[in-house]
Amino acid sequence: MKKSLQALIVLCACNISFSAFANTTSATESPLSIPFSQQIHRYQYSGVVHNDVTNDFSFYGHQGQKITTLVTTDSAKLWVTIKHPQMKQAVDISAISTNPNQRDTYTLPFTGQYHLSIGEYHAISKRNSSQNYTLKITLN
After folding, report:
1. What is the CATH class of 2-139?
2. Domain-by-domain residue ranges, the chain?
3. Of 5, 20, 116, 130, whose CB count within 10 A is highest?
């Protein structure tokens, strides 16, 4: 009985964690394309996240490349996920800390088109709130 209760608690915690991403909608119908190339390795975007709306980006990457993201915002914590068609689910690549400025590096597991999304954590977003942010991305 005790092990069953522990397993149920773990499942609920995972469900709450993933619900931050599941209840969102995209700010645009198609993702904003990031023009990485042999000459362009850095990209910067300033935007606004409104409640449960995500900002979506796409880029082409090669297996083994490293993507580094830096999200700067005034106060709220924003999450950043990355997804490739061969991945079963999006991976949270944002650092969760008390510092609102987040930097994380992720190694791309596949070659092809990636989708990157940024949004506000549902549990801490305020009703009708919006967060200005700057997203800096480096692909090496």
Report:
1. mainly beta
2. 2-139
3. 116
